[in-house]
Amino acid sequence: MTVFRNSPYRAATPVLVALAVAVLIAACKPQESAPLPPMTQGAHAVTGTATYRERIVPPPGSSLRVQLLDNLLADTPKAVIAQTTVKDAAASPIAFTLPFDPTKLRPNGQYGLHATLAGPDGAPWFVSDTRVPVDPSANVPVEIAMVRVGGASASADAPEPTHWQCGDLRVGAAFDNVARRVTLTYSGRSRSLPLAVSASGARYADDAGDEFWTKGDSGTLTLDGEKHECTRTNLASPWDEARARGVAFRAVGNEPGWLVEVGRGEAPSLHAQLDFGSRKLDVAQVQPRADGTGWTGRTANGMQVELTTQRKPCQDPAGATFDITAQLRAGGKTYSGCGAFLEPEGG
Fold this sequence. Notes:
Layout (H helix, E strand, L loop, with lengths): L7 H21 L16 E7 L11 E8 L9 E8 L6 E6 L11 E8 L5 E4 L4 E3 L7 E4 L1 E2 L13 E5 L2 E8 L4 E6 L2 E8 L5 E4 L5 E5 L2 E6 L2 E8 L4 H7 L2 E7 L4 E6 L6 E5 L4 E5 L3 E2 L5 E5 L5 E7 L3 E2 L5 E2 L1 E7 L2 E9 L6
Parallel strand pairs: 1-8
Antiparallel strand pairs: 1-4, 2-3, 2-5, 5-6, 5-7, 6-9, 10-11, 10-17, 11-12, 12-13, 13-14, 14-15, 15-16, 16-17, 18-19, 18-28, 19-20, 20-21, 22-23, 23-24, 24-27, 25-26, 27-28
């Protein structure tokens, strides 16, 4: 009779089987997905911080809104490429991530950022008073400096303006409750309307049929017989922004898109963006033309630049009416468009 003795291989067999089964179960078990990293700066997002100098902590429920803007479309509703809101914003600096659709960017486009920090009631506390230049695909964090709304830079007696998008027209509205009037600024022009009787909302109207009637954040504007539907916005008109920066004259045109700004003083500076922003010209000092219809000067490399103005009604493709027809000649090319002389704030 053959006697089978205990073999170490036979004893180990159940252990090996158990291990094999455990490995198979682990291999078949679905693996938990690792958390996705937060979106950072890149080809499809702009990141950075919005800051202000004052040592103020916003109240709970405050929010920061950041917008990516196409500077050469600033006079149209298409200016906003993308926007994001940071809820429950804390004290400065406030970090933000702004995703955008890269298909909305134009070759050689010029872009800027605008930020508004608002309280829980929606009233703005801090805003960026100028647009911060940005290359959306540069992969570089951006800092947006904001200033206090109604702070030291503003006149204590001047009513704080509100901003409205009325069709294709960007309008600033300063409501003066003491004088019972509203002053409207648009396309470099201004118009004052007295308070009028209304069943609801705030209505301002004159004898010529011009009217601005608001109810909350919406309203209607009638100018020169044309009616526009309006909604409130945090974006100021580029004409109002230029006035705040000390620009005395501004003109814009299309085909190709261009703009020019002239500063104040006897020998002001001139800045131009031509061919949809692909060319930029700067003249440190320009001199008035002999007949008083514009300015002339040379760039640092000697290029002759001449800007002529004519007090002749002009209408841009969006339908906005201007008092000035303008022509800019530079580098053998002539650019035609519409412009306006901008009175100083409070002037």
